[in-house]
Design brief:
The chain is of the alpha/beta class. The chain is built from 17 helices and 14 strands. The relative contact order is 0.08. It binds nicotinamide-adenine-dinucleotide. The site of nicotinamide-adenine-dinucleotide has 26 residues, from helix 5.
Length: 452
Amino acid sequence: MNISIIGLGKLGSPMQAVMAHKGHKVVGVDLNPATVNAINAGKAPVKEPRLQEMMDGSRERISATHSYEEAILGTDITMIMVPTPSGSDGRFSMKYVMEAAEKIGAVLKKKAKWHLVVLSSTVMPGSTGGTLLPALEDITGKTCGPDFGLCYNPEFIALGNVVNDMLKPDMILIGESDPRSGAILEEFYQGVCESNPRIRRMNFVNAELTKLSVNTFVTTRISYANMLAQVCETLPGADVDVVTAAIGCDTRIGSKYLKGALGYGGPCFPRDNVAFSALARANGAPALLAEATDQLNRQQVPRLGAMILAKLPAGGTAGVLGLSYKPDTGVIEESQGVALAKYLLQSGAKLVVYDPEAMEHAREQLQGQVTFAASPSECARQADVLAITTPWPEFKKLTPQDFKRSAGKPVVLDCWRVLAREKFESVVDYLTLGYGAPQAARVPQAMAAEGD
Ligand SMILES: NC(=O)c1ccc[n+]([C@@H]2O[C@H](COP(=O)([O-])OP(=O)(O)OC[C@H]3O[C@@H](n4cnc5c(N)ncnc54)[C@H](O)[C@@H]3O)[C@@H](O)[C@H]2O)c1
């Protein structure tokens, strides 16, 4: 099939490469000349593992243009993958989608052949059928269904793993205007995916709500584990990793996204959760769980920040190792590491930071206020209290030597348990995160009563 993709950013460009890899001719449209030029020169416009390799293998099937007409007239399906930024009320804006829709509609008006439009950006429930569909009908003067098709088909990917996630998804979610449109998209994905994913086809609003609900559910799990970590800290001998590992054995629960201690970040989780609450509130339905999840998440940075400050010697330096919101990406949007760095700076702490991929982005926000270390070990060597906030594999290579001091021991807050504790215990003092060290723990009421 010939495909066009509108928006060649963090998702659109891997999507183009993956579809081309599977034999489709894919032309992309982007407003950004640097993106169009990069793709036409065979260069990945964003940093994402395997993207360049995929592009290299399918060069003859990949192109980019600024012209909607060129892209849409020569293709059968158009995917829309433009940003939908959050507004101040937490709801996603349709501004960029509607700008794209105007231009798509103008071309479809002239196109005699039936065409399928697929919205892949994350949108608020009600947007595809309530806003995009009538706009496309209005601009084209055509009827959705007989004259053109419309699907809502959001992505469930994690940055840093976009190519793999697109090739091997758990589920393909399709909201459809009519069975023909959904069937074409389903058949298309069966040729692209290597994982034999479950395909769920439904109306627009159910698909829009499913997309938001998946992320809201995952964030709830993360906040649950963080809540558990805090409770563990009050119980002598309790260890959140032991408890979550056991909880995860229950097949009703499972073990993914159940690591206690650090909040969630990134371009999707926080805002999807907030959007879900905003939707529920606007419709008069309670979303107490989503609101509590968000509240718990916002408490993580001040909580960890206070732990660090309590251990920081006067005039000492705090270290933050990990600024990207997760490994394998340089994205720092809503990153817990950056938020922690800012919290510590506001409290007057001196700061040294390091990240393998996010230094450039971090400089835009922290330049002149922190020391940017050249390596994980340089960061570790300079810090009196070091927080490891992203589980980058290379942080595992830190050695006890990196923490040895001529006098005293540095303090480490290892949020992801990256360092093998037994190797480092002689050279660092660990901050008790997620477990109740006997000396620090309070004896809870119920236990005291039993002891009586
Ligand atoms: N990044 C993620 O982790 C992720 C995950 C799941 C879903 N999403 C959703 O996917 C959508 C896209 O996200 P992204 O991260 O790829 O965004 P992005 O900002 O990385 O890329 C968007 C691209 O669209 C281009 N663009 C904007 N308006 C355009 C127009 N009218 N015509 C042509 N090009 C246009 C921009 O120049 C940019 O290159 C959003 O709705 C987002 O919520 C993102």
